[in-house]
Amino acid sequence: MEQGKPFWTRELPGETCAIFACARTRKGLAHCGRCDNLPCPLFDTVKDTAVSIQEHRKGICERVARLKALGGGG
After folding, report:
1. What residues contact residue 50 under an 8 Å CB cut-off, 6+ apart?
2. In angstroms, how far apart are the furthest CA atoms of the chain?
């Protein structure tokens, strides 16, 4: 993590990762695994153009499972 911008979003526009900003800044959560709206539409905004939509959706499912495993309250 580089000041709220994961290394893989280095090339995306904006100051921080939209998912990070939503969870940490807007909602005050430790991570988005604690959000009731997981996965949200923001996950579709950080798609690697080198992967298919099917691969992207599979990746979202895997990330959501890991984040939910971290769980916990707000």
Report:
1. none
2. 35
CB neighbour class for 19 (10 Å; exposed up to 12, middle 13-18, buried from 19):
buried
Q: What predicted TM-score, i.e. pTM, was given to this entire model?
A: 0.69
Burial 58-73 (b: 16+ CB within 10 A, else e): eebeebeeebeeeeee
Give CA 51 to chain center in angstroms.
17
Q: Please write the tens of the pLDDT for every residue from 54-74.
A: 999 999 999 899 988 887 554
